[in-house]
């Protein structure tokens, strides 16, 4: 178990020791390294950091024992890691990844990027940042400047290629027997008012709902998905704000907010999912509804010791879901292939949610559950239903 605690003057020596141990183990200390002079400069700089109101200097503790050093600055424009060192004895245990994941989630919540500089002679650190989705945005001396943002990550995930292949008119999720009942039920739940779709995508539902007579607006992160929507409906017909459905605001008051096709699970932390419910409530008039379409986690299909399930194995397409049950994460691996041996892989990470947890999130945002059905035609929801359409309502 690791935890962070704010450093004090009493930690200066430890912080120097751990920095030396980490840098030395990577073979990155210069041949003419003057340890005494370095320790004096480091101590002075550490004391300044402890007093600096814009910076937090932490001791990373593992099992209650000091094991690392972390320095973070926070401004209105970004969160920045100004240094992280872990003692060699605790490296490769996922502690760095866990710390950065928490900081990514903090940055996402604040709607700002997370920045870090990495020395060009530190390939281990660079590999970690690449894996976490950081991209290089510049150079400073011997360092690369890296940045991660939720918007950039979603744009990478939902890029032009994916957006162009997304629509399958008349087939699959675009089939009339899927969209017809969806649109009719949403129109009924909008109750004569305006609807807002979170993560509107290419307008799979929004376009036919708008054509059905319900005024629809949207929030969407991906520019490429939005570009596809714009080939079907202009900004006067379906206004869209580019942003995060957990935080972004769009003008107007709505009687219905809806979030379909399992997309609440694209928010990867419980905090962001709760924020999404609160954001829905903010956009609704009294008595307004928030509708969620979501699958029921398929953990019953996981045999002990097997971390993955095969969702589909059709000619040309295989869906493999890999689970991290501790984080409540599932990554869907979509393999598309033809006759030959080549395949295309598209991966989407999700945080799965049980119906009961979803209801609690709703409660935190002031909603109560009005109905839960197995589908858009109000089929009864049972213990065997693979997914559900849940309707939450604000008090009138
Ligand atoms: C599976 S698609 C669903 C699109 C559409 N709702 C539909 O039913 O076809 C997921 C969409 O969610 C968007 N998305 C993911 N996370 C988002 C977020 N935090 N805020 C806004 N849009 C997001 C993606 O860009 C993508 O367009």
What's the arrangement of secondary structure elements?
Blueprint: E1 2-6, H1 12-25, H2 35-51, E2 55-62, E3 65-74, E4 79-86, H3 95-110, E5 114-119, H4 123-131, E6 135-140, E7 143-148, H5 150-157, H6 160-166, H7 176-190, E8 195-198, H8 206-211, E9 216-220, H9 223-230, E10 240-242, E11 254-259, H10 270-283, E12 284-295, E13 308-314, E14 317-324, E15 329-337, E16 343-351, H11 355-364, E17 368-373, E18 387-393
Parallel strand pairs: 4-5, 8-9, 8-11, 9-10, 11-12
Antiparallel strand pairs: 1-2, 2-3, 3-4, 5-7, 6-7, 12-18, 13-14, 14-15, 15-16, 17-18
Helix pairs in contact: 1-2, 6-9
Bound molecules: S-adenosylmethionine.
Pfam families: Acetyltransf_10, Methyltransf_25
InterPro entries: Acyl_CoA_acyltransferase (IPR016181), GNAT_dom (IPR000182), Methyltransf_25 (IPR041698), SAM-dependent_MTases_sf (IPR029063)
Protein name: GNAT family N-acetyltransferase
Count structural domains. 3
* Biggest sheet, spatial arrangement of strands: 1-2-3-4-5-7-6
Strand composition percent: 25-35%
Structural class: alpha/beta
The appropriate CATH architecture of the largest domain is 3-Layer(aba) Sandwich
Query: What is the top-level CATH class of the largest domain?
Result: Alpha Beta
Mean pLDDT: 95
Please tell me how large the radius of gyration is: 24 Å
Morphology call: elongated
Helix percent reads 25-40%
Number of helices: 11
Q: pLDDT below 50 for ≥5 consecutive residues: which ranges?
A: none
Helix and strand sequence: EHHEEEHEHEEHHHEHEHEEHEEEEEHEE
CATH superfamily of the largest domain: Vaccinia Virus protein VP39
**Number of E strands:** 18
Major sheet: size, sense and barrel closure?
Answer: 7 strands, mixed
User: What is the CATH topology classification name of the largest domain?
Assistant: Rossmann fold
InterPro entries: Acyl_CoA_acyltransferase (IPR016181), GNAT_dom (IPR000182), Methyltransf_25 (IPR041698), SAM-dependent_MTases_sf (IPR029063)
Pfam family, one: Methyltransf_25
Organism: Kribbella sindirgiensis
Domain N-acetyltransferase: 2-153
């Amino acid at each position: 178990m690791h935890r962070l605690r704010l450093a004090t003057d009493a930690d200066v020596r430890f912080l120097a020791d751990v920095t030396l141990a980490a840098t030395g183990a990577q073979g990155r200390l210069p041949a003419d390294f003057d340890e005494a002079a370095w320790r004096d400069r480091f101590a002075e700089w550490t004391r300044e950091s402890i007093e600096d109101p814009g910076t937090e200097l932490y001791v990373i503790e593992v099992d209650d024992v000091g094991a690392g050093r972390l320095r973070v600055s926070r401004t209105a424009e970004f969160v920045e890691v100004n240094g992280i060192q872990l003692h060699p004895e605790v490296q490769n245990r996922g502690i760095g990844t866990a710390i950065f994941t928490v900081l990514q989630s903090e940055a996402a919540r604040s709607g700002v990027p997370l920045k870090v500089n990495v020395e060009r002679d530190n390939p281990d650190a660079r590999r970690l940042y690449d894996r976490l989705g950081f991209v290089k945005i510049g150079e400073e001396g011997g360092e690369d400047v890296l940045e991660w943002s939720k918007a950039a990550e979603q744009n990478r995930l939902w890029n032009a290629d994916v957006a162009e292949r997304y629509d399958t008119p008349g087939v699959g999720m675009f089939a009339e027997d899927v969209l017809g009942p969806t649109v009719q039920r949403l129109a009924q739940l909008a109750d004569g008012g305006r609807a807002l779709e979170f993560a509107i995508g290419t307008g799979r539902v929004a376009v036919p709902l708008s054509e059905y007579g319900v005024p629809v607006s949207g929030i969407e992160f991906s520019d490429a998905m939005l570009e596809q929507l714009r080939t079907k409906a202009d900004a006067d017909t379906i206004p869209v704000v580019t942003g995060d459905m957990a935080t972004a605001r769009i003008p107007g008051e709505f009687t219905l907010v809806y979030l379909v096709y399992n997309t609440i699970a694209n928010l990867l932390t419980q905090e962001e999912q709760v924020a999404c419910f609160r954001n829905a409530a903010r956009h609704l008039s009294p008595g307004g509804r928030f509708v969620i379409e979501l699958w029921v986690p398929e953990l019953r299909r996981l045999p002990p010791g097997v971390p993955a399930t095969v969702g589909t194995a059709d000619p040309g397409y295989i869906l493999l879901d890999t689970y991290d049950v501790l984080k409540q994460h599932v990554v869907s691996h979509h393999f598309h292939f033809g006759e030959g041996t080549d395949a295309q892989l598209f991966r989407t990470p999700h945080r799965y949610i049980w119906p009961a947890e979803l209801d609690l999130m709703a409660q935190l945002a002031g909603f109560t559950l009005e109905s839960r059905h197995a589908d858009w035609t109000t089929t009864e929801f049972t213990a065997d239903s693979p997914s559900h359409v849940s309707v939450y309502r604000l008090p009138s």
